[in-house]
Amino acid sequence: MRVSSVEIDKAASILKLLGDKTRLTMVKLLNNHDCCVCEFVEIFKMSQPAISQHLRKLKDAGVVRETRRGQWIIYSLNQDNDYYPLVRTVLDHLPSQDNLLEELEEQGLRISCE
Amino acid sequence: MRVSSVEIDKAASILKLLGDKTRLTMVKLLNNHDCCVCEFVEIFKMSQPAISQHLRKLKDAGVVRETRRGQWIIYSLNQDNDYYPLVRTVLDHLPSQDNLLEELEEQGLRISCE
DNA sequence: TACTTATATAAGTAAATTATTATATATTAA
DNA sequence: TTAATATATAATAATTTACTTATATAAGTA
After folding, report:
1. What residue stretches are annotated with the HTH arsR-type domain (chains A, B) (predicted)?
2. Nucleotide nearest residue B44, measured CA to C1'
3. How many domains does chain A have?
4. pLDDT band at A114 (very low <50, low <70, confident <90, very high)
5. Which of A12, B30, B32, B72 would give a disulfide with B36, using CB separation of 3.0 to 4.6 Å?
């Protein structure tokens, strides 16, 4: 198989980020749907600062991007970097987590609507 | 793409293990060559217990296997588990680290000879 | 047998990680 | 302008991690 190669230090740092269950699930979700912070707070039953801090790490590494939409900040997967293929292949090995968003939807708590 | 899927908790724990530069390099090397502990000690310029502890974690997770050959214990990649495809795809995104073994060879410090 | 070599384990420690609570900032709405 | 909502940041505490040194075990060799 021929795939783009990522410097080993950078790869290790990306894998470390993905090696946390919360962040890994976040990124898997973002692979299919953009999400805002408050949705993650609901999904993970975790404090808002905790969620913000996970997203900050992912953003600092370039894995995700943010854009403001009114009072919400919408996070999305950044497909525009050298190690996106690595991230993408990892995600391909994970089962869909979309049921988490469907539960939100049933509760009427879904915000971002792309 | 259709690939085998790994439970997200297990995937996170594997990625966490691979998210350390030393372990990631070890596993990348083991993908091509079996190695013993003392070789890793030379390669990483790290204490023998530090190396042993990294290998222990990889072994406990099922990523690597060990077999004794005389006084040496040879480590190899365990291709016989459900998440090997995940590990393998990650490794495919990394540049070869074989130069590290070549340097050993030049110093006459290579042990395992498969 | 005693010594050497290869490896593992145990105990201790410094640094990193992941959460928390408290507070600040920015947008929207009354 | 004031209040409410969404998010970020700061300070802090508990836990985990990745080393270190000291020691134990197991195999090979003189």
Report:
1. 3-98
2. D19
3. 1
4. very low
5. B72
